[in-house]
């Protein structure tokens, strides 16, 4: 049984939903999971393992998540860590957006910065959700320009499969 930190950043709620689902799944496997917004999360030293998840905005993780990881990097390097990002890019190919390939390439770029400092076991990019109200007027026009579609594209099977691999690795550690 591991004590696991699940820390997330979610402006519009879809990442929070995925974080809660992964936490519930790890709980079911007998782990003790604490879910926190990354800006309010306790420092990582009190946990055996950590999972971080952030919604992508402008191809990046929010500064409070980057700051948390930097501040705790020595601790995180010695623990198993998993990262996930949530973005519309992950749904773009399937949904037929223009420039889908470019959007889909953002995840690896985001996480590249953490590769050496904390050595995460994996980084997974999940499809997210987007509504017109999340975008400014100009944003909506640009989104239309890439033939962007609105909706909740979260793939719960993908989320559950990823949770299972984490649970199995925690059990083997
Ligand atoms: C202003 C804005 C910028 C966004 N930028 C990106 C992006 O760069 N890459 C991406 O894949 N998704 C992008 N998205 C889509 C969000 O990441 C996606 O909707 C995600 O589910 C949001 O997570 P949240 O609901 O937890 O905030 C953007 C959405 C908005 C509203």
From TrEMBL:
Q: Keywords for this entry?
A: Oxidoreductase
Give EC number(s), comma-separated: 1.3.5.3
> What Gene Ontology molecular function terms does this protein carry?
FMN binding; menaquinone-dependent protoporphyrinogen oxidase activity
Which one GO biological process term can you cite for this protein? heme biosynthetic process
User: Which species does this protein come from?
Assistant: Actinopolymorpha rutila
Taxonomically, the superkingdom here is Bacteria
The name on file for this protein is Menaquinone-dependent protoporphyrinogen oxidase
Q: Where is the Flavodoxin-like domain?
A: 4-142
């Amino acid at each position: 049984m591991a004590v696991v930190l699940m820390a997330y950043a979610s402006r519009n709620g879809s990442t929070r939903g995925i974080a809660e689902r992964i936490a519930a799944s790890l709980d079911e496997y007998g782990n003790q999971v604490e879910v926190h917004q990354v800006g309010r999360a306790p420092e990582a030293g009190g946990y055996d393992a950590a999972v971080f998840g952030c919604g992508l905005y402008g191809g990046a993780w929010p500064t409070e998540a980057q700051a948390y990881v930097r501040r705790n990097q020595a601790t995180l390097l010695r623990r198993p860590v998993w990262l996930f990002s949530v973005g519309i890019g992950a749904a773009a190919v399937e949904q037929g957006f223009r420039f889908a390939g470019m959007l889909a390439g953002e995840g690896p770029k985001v996480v590249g910065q953490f590769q050496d400092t904390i050595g995460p076991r994996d980084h997974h990019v999940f499809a997210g959700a987007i509504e017109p109200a999340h975008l400014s007027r100009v944003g909506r026009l640009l989104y239309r320009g890439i033939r962007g579609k609105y909706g909740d594209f979260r793939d719960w099977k993908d989320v559950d499969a990823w949770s299972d691999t984490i649970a199995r690795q925690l059990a083997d550690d």
